């Protein structure tokens, strides 16, 4: 049982004012303040103490190696770095090497006189507040000035620094929560990294906006435990997390034929009678208990979700919807509503977002472009890439391909940079094939790419597959690890089954076996390049 630390809104507000007062008496207004830590209370207060009047916050990925931290601190011209004790080894590698950094503040009390300490800074700010210092509490805020600087995923050389302002974030929050009802009594469990705008805007700032409660997960391996302790009502996830819960539930169901029949019959009855989610939660109580017993809302983003998995969770009483966004859009661009959703769609454009399809082909597929108050200010010190991303009419070019259906829902087919162009000139979307492969229990992960065959002067659609070894062993009826030959025998059938659903130019012609998971970023997305 974890030790729960309960904090009131009153203390939260007071700590933000105290820390902000300290900041503004320590550095000039407009200072850049980086946060380098795991999700914790001090991360929240440091962020808001910066953006509410002090200057510009620079959230850093907590998994960054020392060279990337140095490069990002240098590129962002950071004045103050706040960090946790867990990041001390990285901080030791950059301390004193970044010319602009004036202060290094440790969130934890350690014995090192190189650093200032969060609690000490808080007390100094509190004393100034009590003496009547209003430098922070009465600070003017320009809603269109850069107050957030976010580095996109990718290598340090390629990552872009996205400039956002308060107007971007606030407009995004207001539009998003006009599409999904959030009650002040809701309790959210924060499980995703805060340096990404998905969790930061929706899971952190969204709850400040709506006045709800946030519980901080201790880490991915503690999700199940923390769910039972906190009993949240809402959560943000990436699809791979929901898929793990789904597989766990299905494994238990398949092991007991009576349980499987009962679940199937229960879903049929619930759908036939159009039962409310409240009634379904009672009917499928055993599954809901896995989620703490109070979970009503699951929002997914960051990658496409298997519609069948969404449907399953909806059938058993969860409001389970997906959205679509990019850092440059602060981040949500489209979202499925609680009263209007399609499981194969990324969602409806947010109110205030003018979403169009650029240069649609004969199937209506083109690049999504968007214009609205949530569009970013540009890339920091990078006018060339800014000009490529934001056109002269103010539309942001997302790099995502798809179409808008007859009901106005955004359907994403793939990334522009991932498209395989066949020799007949037609486009092959790897994501479409990867999705079909993911429906098979023997496939844990896959990446589809186009490999040039110079001998045949052709582009070969190639699937690199990491198999689900437990499913493979079950299929073969063995307990020892299968041989590569045995695995490839099963994958041959998987590919043949997948190819039956594809047009001739999209069919997988080559299969590569991968025996380790694909490398992923901190959002659990596969690094394709």
Walk me through this protein's architecture.
This protein is of the alpha/beta class and 529 residues long. The protein is 36% helix and 22% strand. The strands form six sheets. The chain has a seven-stranded mixed β-sheet with strand order 9-8-10-11-12-13-14, sandwiched between helices. The longest helix has 18 residues. The chain is globular, with a radius of gyration of 25 Å.
In DSSP terms (H or I, runs of 4 or more residues), the helix count works out at 17
Under the CATH scheme, the architecture of the domain at 1-141 is 3-Layer(aba) Sandwich
CATH topology of the domain at 1-141: Rossmann fold
What are the low-pLDDT stretches, counting only 5+ consecutive residues below 50?
none
End-to-end distance, in Å?
41 Å
Overall geometry comes to globular
Strand order of the largest sheet: 9-8-10-11-12-13-14
Helicity level: 25-40%
For the record, what CATH class of the domain at 1-141 applies?
Alpha Beta
Q: Mind describing the biggest β-sheet?
A: 7 strands, mixed
**What is the typical, i.e. mean, pLDDT?**
94
Structural class: alpha/beta
**Whole-angstrom Rg:** 25 Å
**Total number of β-strand segments?**
24
Strand content: 15-25%
């Amino acid at each position: 049982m974890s030790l729960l630390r309960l904090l009131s809104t009153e203390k939260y507000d007071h700590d933000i004012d105290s820390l902000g007062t300290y900041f503004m008496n320590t550095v000039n207004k407009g200072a850049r303040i980086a946060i380098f830590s795991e999700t914790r209370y001090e991360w929240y207060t440091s962020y808001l103490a910066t953006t509410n009047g002090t200057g510009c916050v620079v959230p850093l990925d907590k998994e960054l190696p020392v060279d990337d931290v140095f490069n990002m601190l240098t590129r962002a011209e950071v004045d103050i770095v706040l960090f946790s004790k867990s990041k001390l080894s990285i901080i030791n590698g950059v301390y004193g090497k970044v010319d602009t950094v004036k202060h290094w503040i440790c969130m934890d009390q350690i014995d090192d006189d190189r650093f200032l300490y969060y609690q000490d800074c808080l007390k100094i700010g509190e004393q100034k507040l009590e003496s009547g210092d209003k430098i922070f509490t009465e600070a003017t805020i320009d809603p269109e000035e850069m107050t957030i600087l976010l580095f996109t995923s990718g290598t340090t050389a390629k990552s872009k620094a996205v400039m956002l302002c308060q107007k971007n974030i606030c407009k995004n929050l207001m539009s998003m929560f006009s599409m999904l009802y959030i009650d002040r009594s809701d309790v959210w469990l924060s499980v995703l990294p805060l340096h990404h705008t998905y969790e930061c805007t929706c899971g952190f700032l969204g709850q400040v906006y709506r006045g709800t409660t946030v519980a901080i997960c201790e880490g991915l391996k503690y999700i199940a435990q923390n769910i039972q302790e906190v009993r949240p009502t809402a959560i943000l996830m990436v699809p791979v997390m929901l898929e793990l819960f789904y597989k766990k539930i299905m494994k238990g169901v398949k092991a007991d034929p009576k349980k499987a029949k009962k679940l199937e019959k229960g879903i049929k009855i619930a759908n036939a009678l159009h039962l409310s989610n409240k009634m379904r939660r009672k009917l499928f109580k055993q599954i809901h208990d896995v989620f703490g017993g109070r979970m009503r809302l699951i929002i997914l983003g960051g990658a496409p979700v298997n519609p069948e998995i969404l449907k399953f969770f909806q059938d058993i009483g969860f409001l389970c919807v997906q959205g679509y966004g990019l850092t440059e859009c602060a981040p949500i661009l489209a979202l499925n509503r609680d009263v209007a959703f399609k499981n194969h769609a990324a969602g409806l454009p947010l109110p205030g977002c003018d979403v169009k399809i650029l240069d649609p082909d004969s199937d209506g597929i083109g690049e999504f472009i968007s214009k609205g108050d949530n569009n970013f200010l540009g890339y920091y010190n990078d006018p060339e890439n800014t000009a490529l991303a934001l056109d002269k009419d103010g539309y942001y070019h997302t790099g995502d391909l798809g179409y808008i259906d007859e009901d106005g829902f955004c359907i994403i087919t793939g990334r522009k940079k991932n498209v395989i162009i066949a020799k007949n000139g037609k486009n092959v979307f790897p994501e479409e094939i990867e999705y079909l492969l993911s429906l098979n229990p023997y496939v844990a992960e896959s990446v589809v790419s186009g490999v040039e065959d110079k001998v045949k002067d052709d582009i070969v659609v190639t699937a690199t597959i990491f198999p689900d070894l437990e499913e493979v062993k079950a299929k073969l009826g063995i307990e020892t690890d299968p041989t590569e030959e045995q695995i490839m025998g099963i994958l041959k059938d998987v590919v043949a089954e997948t190819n039956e659903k594809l047009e001739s130019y999209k069919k997988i012609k080559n299969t590569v076996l991968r025996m380790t998971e694909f490398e992923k970023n901190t959002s659990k997305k596969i690094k394709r390049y």
